[in-house]
Amino acid sequence: MTGQRVRQIYSGRVVHLALHEIQLPDGSTAIRELIEHAGAAAVVALDEANHVLLVRQFRIGAHQHLYEIPAGILEAGEPPASCASRELQEEIGYFPGRLDALGGFYPTPGYTTEYIHLYLARDLSPAPLQQDHDEFIEVTRIPFGEALAMIERGEIVDSKTIIGLLRVARRLSL
Amino acid sequence: MTGQRVRQIYSGRVVHLALHEIQLPDGSTAIRELIEHAGAAAVVALDEANHVLLVRQFRIGAHQHLYEIPAGILEAGEPPASCASRELQEEIGYFPGRLDALGGFYPTPGYTTEYIHLYLARDLSPAPLQQDHDEFIEVTRIPFGEALAMIERGEIVDSKTIIGLLRVARRLSL
Question: Based on the domain organization, do A47 and A32 belong to the same domain?
Fold first, then answer.
């Protein structure tokens, strides 16, 4: 089963929407709406005391401020690990001495191509980069166990943040 | 900070795209692309032997067949728990004697309103419902520990499936 683009609907800043025709296993065809997305990288950043660095910003899809791990969209040709490191410097002002890949995931594979590469960052040293002009981000430092409790209590509700924290909890037995 | 719809771009089967104007903390405004989505429910279904029931289907966003927990979009006015139960019957043919809410999450709050309600289903009894005509779904039954290993190996890459399995792993100490 493969898809073929039959119509471009919209091309914007983040969202590029097209209609694709797919062939179903019974030989019939169906139209699927598909958001074409450049992909992203996201980082669980831990300090020496196993506190995790989270950012808090308004998210229009949730219509509220959300706690999230630092993340950003891949620039053209940018390797995901470079993107992860750059976003960490832009959003929380640290460079990771150690960056371990945790694989990645599709947030909504039914209608977007977005794939988020996940990393664990440690050995942080101060090295700020300029933020994007329209980002207003508040940084918080939370004990790792408390961040896990925030998932249970429904206070952390962003997919990349939940997956990043739970993957790191298993990997480091936290 | 709030958003206001300034232009409707497209209204389709799953995806409804609009442009929203938001006011930033510094008083300036910015345009954000927003997918308006009805929301969904997804279910980690465990049998008596702690095998998890996964479905496998082609996903155009990932351009491959993915392993996923059963899930579906909320119908108008449908409570999420009813949707979870209905999708379980449609996709894997079981009714859950016990259904525990695990909260939920936003897969991509930066550009869609989609919120996925998660459930843990147990005490399963056979009770099939007719599948949607254009769904071609293969059901597999996998030991819970093996499903967790598939996340580590990058063989399960769907957000709701990863979050559902890792939340249940912590809750049931599996």
Answer: no
User: Closest approach of chain B CAs to the CA of A159, in angstroms?
Assistant: 5
Is the minimum CB–CB distance between A76 and chain B shorter than 8 Å? no
Residue B131 pLDDT class (50, 70, 90 cuts): confident
Nearest neighbour of A17 by CB, restricted to B2, B10, B151? B10
Could you report the per-residue pLDDT of A46-94, keeping only the tens digit for each?
999 999 999 999 999 999 999 999 999 999 999 999 999 999 999 999 9
Strands (E), B60-127: 64-68, 71-73, 94-105, 116-126
Whether residue B81 sits in one domain with residue B26: no
A2 compared with A46, residue with greater pLDDT: A46
pLDDT of residue A109: 97
Statement to judge: residues A81 and A167 lie in one domain: yes
Residues A114, B32: C-beta atoms closer than 8 Å: no
Total domains in chain B come to 2
- B59, B160 in Cβ contact below 8 A? no
Q: Do B13 and A31 touch (CB under 8 A)?
A: yes
- Residue-range definition of the domain harbouring residue A93: 40-171
Q: What is the mean pLDDT of residues B50-77?
A: 96
Asked whether residue B44 falls in the same domain as residue B26, the answer is: no
Coil, helix or strand at residue B25: coil
SS3 B59: strand
**Residues in chain A closer than 8 A to B105 (CB atoms):** 157-159, 162
Q: Which strands, in side-by-side order, build the sheet including B16-23?
A: B3-11, B16-23, B29-36
* Same structural domain, B10 and B67: no
Same domain, B107 and B156: yes
Q: Using CB atoms, pick whichever of B25, B59, B109 lies closest to residue A109.
A: B59
pLDDT of residue A126: 94
Chain B CB within 8 Å of residue A30 CB: yes
- Check: complex ipTM more than 0.90: yes
Mean pLDDT of chain B: 94
- Three-class DSSP category at B172: coil
Note whether B35 contacts A: Cβ–Cβ < 8 A.
yes
Q: A169: pLDDT confidence band, cut at 50, 70 and 90?
A: very high
* pTM score, whole prediction: 0.95
